[in-house]
Design brief:
By secondary structure, the protein is α/β, with parallel strands linked by helices. Helix content is about 35%, strand content about 20%. The chain has helices spanning about 15-25, 60-70, 95-105, 130-150, 165-180, 195-200, 225; strands at about 1-5, 30-35, 50-55, 80-85, 110-115, 185-190, 205-210, 215, 235. The protein binds flavin mononucleotide.
């Protein structure tokens, strides 16, 4: 089978799951292509599409929703899709429905919607980081869930989308507007070593290191704050313990 895996990942959790799927499916002899929406503008030919994104305030990031709307053409052939999210808790992981419904409207048969519980990357104003023992367990659980979801693909029992996703999509639109202004709370202090990692890695080219400035395109992915080797980035002048993916999906 030809399989395309597409994802957006701010800090690596969603990417880890994407590469977990890729590894498992390649081991099973499938032809797999993995891409991030940051570098891809089209999808390779596929029979199965796997799409993943993190949950931001209950839905997928606005960028990922827009990518799906704009760049995935309608299909009349028998393409199937699996959608997954990663989030710190599972109560608000509605984003899979939003992407699932859009793909269904484009002619895909949706075979699974999965919510992976992964370490929290957003503990700036409230919440605590996920303790290490739990991070380890979450990566272990994720490996099992990846394998189960592929071994039990219910191609003959597609998911029906009765509910409207309008409200959660409005929330994603509003969140992306809020993120632009909340992003102005990030600042780079004098401990900056000018390595350029934040500027180079920002998915929205929102940082210029020369004048240590954040512009107004932030999506709050938190990649900058968690990947600064000097921990020189603060939010509302507050430093946080960085989150970095430190476990592997072992299949
Ligand atoms: C701006 C923002 C909002 C978030 N909102 C939620 C949320 O509503 N519910 C939740 O469980 N996790 C939330 N999270 C946590 C992330 O969904 C979670 O850590 C995810 O696995 C990060 O994926 P990534 O490493 O691929 O970026 C949020 C994270 C960010 C950055």
């Amino acid at each position: 089978m030809r399989i395309s895996i597409l994802f957006f990942s701010g800090t690596g959790n969603t990417k880890s799951i994407a590469y977990g799927y890729s590894q498992l499916l390649k081991d099973k002899g499938h032809d797999v292509a993995v891409s991030s929406i940051e570098t891809a503008s089209t999808l390779d030919e596929h029979d199965l599409l796997i799409i993943g994104g993190p949950i931001y305030a209950g839905n997928m990031p606005h960028e990922l929703i827009q990518w799906v709307r704009k760049n995935i053409p309608k299909t009349s052939s028998n393409k199937i899709a699996l959608v997954y999210s990663t989030s710190a808790g599972l109560q608000n992981a509605h984003g899979v429905k939003s992407i699932g419904k859009k793909l269904s409207n484009k002619g895909y048969t949706i075979v699974d919607l999965l919510a992976y519980e992964m370490p929290r990357n957003f503990y700036i104003d409230k919440y605590d980081p996920t303790p290490e023992f739990l991070q380890k367990q979450q990566f272990k659980n994720a490996a099992q869930m990846i394998a189960d979801s592929i071994n039990n693909l219910q191609i003959d029992k597609p998911i029906e989308f009765m509910e409207s996703v309008l409200l959660i999509d409005i929330m994603a639109d509003l969140f992306s507007i809020m993120a632009k202004s909340l992003g102005k709370n990030f600042s780079i202090d004098e401990s900056c070593i000018s390595c350029g990692i934040c500027e180079k890695n920002c998915p929205k080219n929102n940082i210029t290191l020369k004048d240590k400035k954040y512009h107004n395109r932030c999506i709050l992915c938190t990649r900058c704050i968690h990947n600064c080797p000097a921990n020189a980035i603060s939010y509302k002048k507050k430093k946080i313990e960085p989150y970095r993916v430190q476990y592997k999906i072992k299949l």
